[in-house]
Amino acid sequence: MRDPLSVLTDAFTSFVLGKVETTRLPVRTSTGQAQAVYLPTAAPGLGDSGVIIGREVYSGKGYVYDPFQLYGQQLPAPHWLVLGESGNGKSALEKTYVLRQLRFRDRQVVVLDAQGEDGVGEWNLIAQELGITPIRLDPMVANDSGIRLNPLDPAITTTGQLALLRTIIEVAMGHGLDERSGFALKVAHAHVNEHIADRQPILTDIVEQLRHPEAESAEAMNVDIDDVRAWGLDVALVLDRLVDGDLRGMFDGPTTVGIDLDAPLIVFDLSHIDRNSIAMPILMAIVGVWLEHTWIRPDRKKRIFLVEEAWHIINSPFVAQLFQRLLKFGRRLGLSFVAVVHHLSDVVDGAAAKEAAAILKMASTRTVYAQKADEARNTGRVLGLPRWAVEIIPTLTPGIAVWDVNGNVQVVKHLITERERPLVYTDRAMTESSGPSDPELEWETEQRALLMERQMNDSSQSTVA
C-alpha cells in the first residue's frame, strides 16, 4: 500500500499540472529477447553474388563485391580506385581479390607489377603458383633474351600507332608536340608503314626516316626538305632513347613471339624500371595501348586490368588521355580498371588535374585505407565521402578500409584464408598485415569457392550439352 505522503504528492501534482505520471512496473527479460526492442541498424550490403572480401565492421555481415555483377544495376562503371598509405593492406587486398576472381572461368587479369625485391616482382609467387611466367621488361637483358613490345606492331591500328608515338614523345619532352614536329612525325610514320611490308616496322625505321626525310614529304606541304628534317630532329632524339638509350631493347624490335594472351593471369614485371624515372609512364603507355589492341576482345570474357603505382598514368596528361579512351572502350567489352595509388594528392594536384578528375569520375568504387587526417579530409572532399567516414579514416587499423561503392559506404575488414596467406605476404609485404585470420570466414570463403566451382561446372556442362 502506498504511503499517505505519496498519495498527497500525486494529488497536488495533478491539481497544479493537470496530469499524473504513471508508474510502470519493471520488466524482467534476457538480452536475447531485449535485442528485438533496440534493433541494430546497418547500411544494406551489395548482395551475395560475387567475390567475398571480408566482413562489414558494424554489422558483422560478409562483404561481397564484384563489379561485373553490380555493373548496370548499382554501378555506372566497373572501375575501382584503391587508396592508402603503405603498410595498411592494399597489396593483400589486390592479391586476394585477383585470386578469388580467377575462380570464375570467364575472368582474365592483367597486372602491371611495379614493385618487388630480390630481382623479381611482387606478384612472382602468385604467378608461379598458377604456372604463369611473368613478362619481365628489363632494359639490362632486353638485347639478349628479354621481352620486346613493338609500338609499331601491326596488331595496333595505324591511328593507334601514331597516337602512341606522340604520347611517348610528349611524356619524354614534358610538353605537347608543336604542329611542325607533329607533321614531321606523321609523314615519317606514314612513309615507314607504306614502304616496309616484309617485316614488322620498328622504331629504328622511324628514327632513320626523321633524320633523312624523303623529298615527297616536303613537296606535299610545299616546304623545303631541310625544314622537314629540322622539325623532326627533336622527335628523332627522343625516340633514339628507346633505340639506343636507357630503354633500349624493350621496344626497338618486333614483339616477342609466344606471349600468351589467353592465360588467366598476365603479369608485366616492371620492377626493374626506376619508378621515379620518365621511363615508367612511357612504359605504361606502351603496355596499355598494346593490350588495348591485342588483349581486349569481344569474346564475353570479363577482364581486370590492375595497375600498381597508377599515379604514373593518371598524373601524365598524355598517358591519362590514352587510358581514358581505353576505359571508355573497355567498359563496353567487360573491362574493370583497378588503379592503386598511395595519395590522392599525387594525382589531383599534378599536371594532369583535368584528366585525373575524368578518370576518378569513372571509378565508381573507391576503397580508402588509413591516411593522415589532412590527407583524409582532402580525399573526402574530392571523392564526396560522408563526414563520419572521413573522421574514421585516420583511425583505421591495417586491413580495415572505407568502401564507397557508388554511394553505398561501408567499413570493411578484409580477411585472408590460410591457403592465401603464403602467396599474399611476400618478404617485402610482411608489414602489410591484414590482421589475424578468421577461421569462420575461412570456412565461409572455402564453402563459397566450392559452390562457385560447382555452379561453373554445371554451367560448362549445360553449355556443352
From TrEMBL:
InterPro entries noted in UniProt: P-loop_NTPase, T4SS_component
Keyword field contains Nucleotide-binding: yes
Keyword Protease among record annotations: no
Keywords carried by this UniProt record: ATP-binding, Nucleotide-binding
Domain of life of the native organism: Bacteria
Protein name: ATP-binding protein
Sample GO molecular function, one term: ATP binding
Origin species: Streptomyces omiyaensis
Pfam families: AAA_10
UniProt-annotated stretches for the region Disordered: 429-465
